[in-house]
Amino acid sequence: MKSLLLCLFLFVSCSTAWQSPVREPATTSEFMHLVLDIDWTIVTEIKDPRQIVKPHPRVIEVLGIQYFINEGLEELIIEALKYPDVKISFFSGGKRARNSELLSKIKLKDGRSLKDIATNILSLEELVKNELAPENSPFATRFKKDLTLISKDLWQITMLDDTPNFVLDTFEKQSDSVFFIGTAFEYFDSFEKTEGHSGEYVPKSYEAWLLNRKKLFILKEAFVESYRESKRGEGTLLEGMKKRERLLDLKSHTWNAYSRKLYANAMLSLEKYKKVNCGEMALELIRL
Ligand SMILES: [Mg+2]
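Above: inputs. Below: predicted complex with magnesium ion.
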């Protein structure tokens, strides 16, 4: 039934979904900052090499560790790069050298790497130690990301992170600038490969596995909608994204009508679909 509804949606929206992107000029000197966490947000560490058939075009190796480049990442970055008043930064708890090498290995179609397009790359070395946290507490409790290193105006920042409360909330509530994208699952090349595995980081259904896999496509569409809303004077980019954080409810690991709509829109805007008709496109989506 869900597939049928998705198919119907695709046919209805087919004629409008790949309109040319809006290229609004910057109307103020103020920039919006899209800040991306790295681990489990834009890449997924492959802890079990049996989970993937190699060589794989989306797998990179950095300092002996293999990472899967999460699907939809390049599309999200390319979209954000279209807007001259949006700056892209990365803020990770990983070491600076690792982050630098990892970002330099993720390439866009024009040959630039994520390191090339980044305004800021902030790392372990920039984390703030929470002196009040017990030594045996989780890493993200003992160390915090300080978003004021990106901008003193927190309303200008939207950070995407799979770890809740990884930012400083001591003086200002920096978590209000974070879109919590839900806890990520470990890497499984397909849902079938979760068989025999259990625990918090193992998806319990195909739908949960798929949502985890396609999350960045959905976030790209959420960003586009929020950006356009902000340009119409309907709140800030951050307000739009926080509204969509609630509507999408990605932390629940369940699809809803809104996440399905944004995902379908993202698929329709993909280059590879532009030369095929809607019928073929719908069939491919149903197979997912
Ligand atoms: Mg993370």
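The first strand starts at residue 32 and ends at 36.
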